Structure formats: C-alpha cells, structure tokens
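The instructor's notes for this session suggest beginning with a concrete chain rather than abstract definitions. Hand out the sequence below and ask the class to guess, before any prediction is shown, which regions might be ordered.
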Amino acid sequence: MQIFEHGQAQDRTLLFFPCTAEPVWAFADTITLLSQRWHVFQVVYDGHQPEYPGDFTSVEQTVDEVISYLKSHGVSRLGGAYGCSMGGACLTRMLALGEMPIDRAIIDGGITPYQLPYLVRKLILARDVLSFKLAANDRKVLEAAFPPERFTPAGHDPKKEYDAMEAYLKTFSDRTIRNVFWSANNYALPKRSAKIGAKITYWYGDDEKKDRRSNIRFIKRYFPQIRIHGIPKMAHAELVIVHPEEFCRYAEKFLAGPAEAAQPVGTQDRRMTR
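After discussion, reveal the predicted structure:
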C-alpha cells in the first residue's frame, strides 16, 4: 500500500480512500482541488498500480496499514475522511475500530458485508470476477458498462481515457481481482462499532439507488447516527471521478459546515426501505 500526501501546507487533514479498479490519475483533478484546502492523504491500494509490487490482500490489512502510517507520521486525529465503494468499506471498518479519531466522514456508495450464506457469496464472487475480466479484455463490454459520454470528465479525450483504462485494467493479477471482490463484500467488523464522535454521512447516486439498498439498511443499523443523502443524476462513483468541482462543493459543505449543512444542495434526507 502507498499513501500520497498533497497540500501539506494545509492545517486540516483529510483521508481519501478511492474506489477499486481506478488508477491514481483518475482522481487527479479531484485531489488537486481538495488539496487547496486540505492536507490530503490519498490511499493507493496494493495491486492497483503496476509500478508498485504486491497484490491486494484485504480491507482489514489496508485499514491496519493506513492507521499505522498516519500514527507514524504524527497524525493523531483526522479532520475528515472520504471513502468510495471499496474505499467506503475501508472507511466503515476504520470508523468501527475507533483507533483513529475522525471528525467527519463521507461514505460514498460504500460496500457493507454481505449477510448471505457462504455458498451464495462464493457464487457472487465468481460472477464479479468474470465481469471484471470481461470488461478488462473487451473494449465493447467496458464501454457498455461505463459509457464514455457519461464517464469522461469534461476537457478530457474519451479515446485517450479509455485506451489508458483498458491497458490499466489488464495489469490486475488474478489474486488481486479475487481478493478485491471477496474482501470488499465480506470484510470483518466488530459486532458493535466503537464509541465514536464522528459525524457520518452516506452518499449514494440516484442512479445506483436500487443497488445500494442493502448497504444502506446495514449502515443505518450499524451507525445509528448516520445521515443518508442521495446525489441527483449520479451513478456509482460518478461524482468523485467525473465531476471534481461539484464533488468538492458537496464534500466541503459537509466536512467544513455544521451538522445542518451536511446535506448536499438540492437533496433531501432519505429514509430508504426495500
């Protein structure tokens, strides 16, 4: 695991757990904006950058290594933390352990542990691994899953973006792919979260609402204080990757404002049920 630091001159600290299967450069515009106000600790998972050796192992190991890094670099408390998808799983576990105080946390489309029989979870793993490999080896599948007209940031060349992404996905080892999809969906949590004072919000894109229902049910039980917010017209991880300026407005409103300001502009607090 690597941690890149940005905006070291800033007083406020922000931990950034990205989603899986995205290269460092996919978050460059967002990190540049965040680092104008925050000292950002950007996590780079094992097995996610070909220039760094090693395979991804687990959410648990990643969180342990992040906490160790922060403490060894003199960080005893974080002003904020953000985690998307598998990064949301990492942040959920980090909050639950209570070993690093965090003032405010954004779990964006975060994955929670499956509450399913073992055999069902193994079948889902096989499906997820196959889906990843199809997208990594077939440009048409990749573009069907993530249409370039929607998932290319403004000012970027879609062909160059997808050429680079196609090459990047081919660098993932079989072990990393398997461990990512197993651990992100089956990581361990304490039976009850440690007592924490963090203000926590769970974001989901309106276009992923159905996919996040079980995650939201779980997270509301596990962190009763959490606030749930839908982001209009967004798919999974779209806000942070494709719309950096809008993402930073939403994030800053929650991270810097009072509890009443935690709600992104134009959304309502939503109590979701199946």
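Then share the key points. The beta strands are 2-6, 13-17, 39-44, 78-84, 102-108, 199-205, 227-231. The two ends are 37 Å apart (CA to CA).
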